[in-house]
């Protein structure tokens, strides 16, 4: 199973969009899945279901940090390297999908009550939303820019 398929399976098993992307790659960086789930959970639904930046895109940015950062506070060289990768990858996602904003990607299907309650996962949920495609795109972009480049 490739990483994009793994991310989709994680999403279908109950992970949010951000968790699915981060957890599909966490093993490459020595991060256990439980820690990756916890770190990325708040980014789902466009940041806590506020429909802001797509959670899959946020997850992609987190993976860029895992792949490219030296993890040293104040290291502007590593920060620049991560920022450049995030800009390049996010640009490719936006070119393909038209936006990086969850609300736009969902066709402005915002929660009517501002609730933090996650949407129930049904067959219809998966069919009418672009989330699976966004998750696949992010995983494939990560493979292209980060994983292939590290080999």
Helix content: 55-70%
Low-confidence stretches: none
Rg, rounded, reads 15 Å
What characterizes the major β-sheet?
Answer: none
Taking the alpha carbons of the first and last residues, their distance comes to 19 Å
Number of distinct beta strands:
0
**Domains counted in the coordinates: how many?**
1
Helix-and-strand structural type: mainly alpha
What coarse outline follows from CA principal-axis ratios?
globular
Query: Based on the structure, what is the oligomeric state of the protein chains?
Result: single chain
What does this structure look like?
With about 150 residues, the chain is mainly α. The protein has helices spanning about 5-10, 15-25, 35-40, 55-70, 75-95, 100-105, 125-130, 130-150. α1 (about 5-10) crosses α2 and α2 packs parallel to α8.
């Amino acid at each position: 199973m490739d990483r994009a398929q793994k991310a989709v399976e994680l999403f279908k098993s109950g992970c949010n969009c951000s968790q699915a992307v981060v957890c599909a790659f966490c093993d490459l960086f020595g991060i256990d899945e439980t820690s990756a789930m916890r770190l990325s959970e708040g980014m789902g639904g466009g940041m806590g279901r506020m429909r802001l930046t797509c959670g899959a895109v946020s997850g992609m940015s987190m993976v860029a940090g895992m792949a490219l950062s030296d993890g040293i506070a104040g290291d502007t060289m590593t920060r620049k390297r991560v920022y450049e990768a995030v800009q390049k990858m996010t640009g490719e996602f936006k070119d393909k999908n038209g936006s990086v904003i969850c609300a736009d990607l969902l066709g402005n299907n915002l929660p009517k009550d501002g609730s933090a309650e996650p949407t129930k996962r049904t067959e219809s949920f998966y069919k009418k939303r672009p989330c699976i495609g966004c998750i696949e795109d992010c995983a494939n972009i990560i493979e292209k820019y980060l994983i292939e480049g590290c080999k």
